């Protein structure tokens, strides 16, 4: 079956709600990626790479806690909201169950976090920064993203997030003027999250008249069990994505965390068009399961990623100068830019082959395999005292994404032989 663009156009025209929601969601994802780049050069110049590195590490610690608070509900409970969108009692059951669980995890996490921070003096030189950074979890705690996704009201998600993030960014430019102001950054960011979350809950409980009550424990437990597999997947995936930040700050230098983070941000920007394209094609591929079409798209995605990566490499001196304000050895970032090629192809195969063909377990296996590869490489580097170089962490990251791609392509090729 040939790739027929007219069929896709017909599909999109017949699903205007889908197209509108996708438009808002894509806008939000691009906005979230671009916004940090607006403050990046300013904060590096005002704070210096070391202090900004500590800000990034505090954000990573908060993002780990957010995984526990989120608990996979954003993905899993979206289905329940969508199915029962006309049943207000069921909507109340879902929303209240999720909020109760998240509040409980938030409280427990806070007790553990502040005990480690103050009693055991971890990050003792930056206690104030990490104390405020904990409240960055407010985005996951308060904002019921799953509710708006399930009701296909992505306009609200986009509007609230865009307004609150712009508010935070403007305040950062106004209030962060010297190195000693670095602890203000999580205050401003979390304030935006809290305002956005409370406004979203106002829409849910007041405008939509979803009554608040404490659900029965057996009801809450049902939603927890349903979300646990996805929580486990997210937790595994976060190891290879976030641990390097913490290890870099400990074994190399906090300043190098900024360079590593720049590589991650460039990688995500390069990959974003591919992931957006994957979302658009997913409905058709899931229905037709046309391996011939998938093969053609994989080659096109590969060529696109190579060309885009080449373009970023050409502009890399200008990008580095703009973002960092100092001359650096670009070799590490150039090697890092192999990662978007591997990650982009891997993401497409993961969503439009493994998930679209109902091979969800292989998606989970690929994450476990990748995590084992990452931990093995990191352990090997530690045993041989090699974790003292930014280049080593870059090579580990690139190799890990390459391993993920190889595993998913292996599953894909097995499908084509059948």
Automatic annotation (TrEMBL):
Alphabetical keyword list: Cell membrane, Membrane, Transmembrane, Transmembrane helix
Entry membrane topology: Multi-pass membrane protein
Signal sequence extent: none
Membrane-spanning parts: 21-39, 51-73, 94-116, 128-149, 156-176, 182-206, 297-320, 332-355, 362-384, 390-410
Location of the protein in the cell: Cell membrane
Xref: Pfam families: Polysacc_synt
Main location: membrane
The protein's name: Oligosaccharide flippase family protein
Annotated source species: Fontibacter flavus
Lineage: Bacteria, Pseudomonadati, Bacteroidota, Cytophagia, Cytophagales
